[in-house]
Amino acid sequence: MIDEKEFIKQLLNPQTQNTAFQKLLSDYQRPLYSHIRNIVLNHDDADDVLQNTFIKVFQYLKNFKGESKLFSWMYRIATNEALTFLSQKAKLSGISSEDLQNKTIDNLKADLYFDGDEIQIKFQKAIVTLPEKQQLVFKMKYFEELKYEEIAEILGTSVGALKASYHHAVKKIELYVTSN
Amino acid sequence: MKAFKLENEPKIKSGFNTPENYFDDFSEKVLQQLHQKEVKVIPFYKRKKTLSLAAAAVIGFALMIPIVNNYKATSNDLDEATLETYLSYQSNISQYDLIQKLDDSDIEKLNNNITLEDETLEDILSTSPNIEHLIAEQN
C-alpha cells in the first residue's frame, strides 16, 4: 500500500494522473456506490450521483489539504452530492424529501436492481421516518458496516454522539416495524 | 405481536444491486467525462469549416489579382479619345504646335488618309463654289 501523500501526488501529476485515478476509481467505486445508493435508493440516480462525485473529487483534488484522509474526504463529497441531489429532486417534484423517499421505496418493487422482499421494503420505510442525520448514521453503520471512527471523520461528529444517534435510530426502527 | 429487535434478527440486507458489468464500465465512463471536461475538444467539422473558409479567402484573393492588375493598367494608359479631347479643349497647344510635332511618317499617314475615291472627289469639286476658279487657274 503506497503512502497516501504519495498517491495524491501521483493524482496531481499529469504524467501519473491517469493510472492513479483509475486506481482511485477501482478502490472506491463500490463502497461509494453503496453509500450513495443507500441515500438515493434508485440505481439510475445513484449512477448519476456517483459520476458527479468522482468528477468533483478530481476537480477539487488540488485543493485537498490532506487534513483528513482521502477516504473520508471522498465520502463527504459523496454524501453532500447525494443529499443535494435528493433535495433538488424533491423540489422539482414539489414534494418533501420524506415523501419523495417514500415514493421511491414504493417504486422499488418494480426496480430491476432491487431484489429485496416485503420485509426489506418495510425496513426502508422505517428508516425514512428518521431525521436525516440519524438515517445517515444508521445506513453507514448497519448496511455499509463502517466503524464509528470512520463515520465520525466523515460526518465531523464525535463517536459518542454517533453511538447515541445510532441507538435512537435502532429504537425508532424497531418500534416502526413492530407496529406496522 | 412479538416486538421486533434488530439484534435478534438475521442481518437484513439493503437488497440493492447493480446491472451486470456496471463497475467494469463505470471507470471508463468517468474517465471519458473527465477528458471531455479537461480538453475543450474542437469537433472535426468545425476545424474543417475554418479550413475551408481560409481556403475560400485565399482563392478569393487569388481571383482578385488579375482584376487589380487590369484596373491599374487601364488607369495608367489613357485611351486616344480622352487624349484628343484633352488636347483640343483643355490645353494651350495650338494647331500650329501640333503640326510642328509631326514627323515624316505622320505626314505620310495623313496623305494616305486623304486618298479619296474619284466619285467623292467629283462631288466635292462640283459642290465647291471656288472650283471654277481653280480650273481657270489650272488652264
From TrEMBL, chain A:
Pfam families: Sigma70_r2 (PF04542), Sigma70_r4_2 (PF08281)
Protein name: Sigma-70 family RNA polymerase sigma factor
InterPro entries: RNA_pol_sigma-70-like (IPR039425), RNA_pol_sigma-70_dom (IPR014284), RNA_pol_sigma70_r2 (IPR007627), RNA_pol_sigma70_r4_t2 (IPR013249), RNA_pol_sigma_r2 (IPR013325), RNA_pol_sigma_r3/r4-like (IPR013324), WH-like_DNA-bd_sf (IPR036388)
Alphabetically ordered keywords of this record: Sigma factor, Transcription, Transcription regulation
Family classification: Belongs to the sigma-70 factor family. ECF subfamily.
Record domain RNA polymerase sigma factor 70 region 4 type: where: 122-173
Domain RNA polymerase sigma-70 region, residue spans: 25-90
From TrEMBL, chain B:
Keywords per UniProt: Membrane, Transmembrane, Transmembrane helix
Source species of the chain: Flavobacterium chungbukense
Protein's name according to its UniProt entry: Uncharacterized protein
Keyword Membrane attached: yes
TM spans (from-to): 50-68
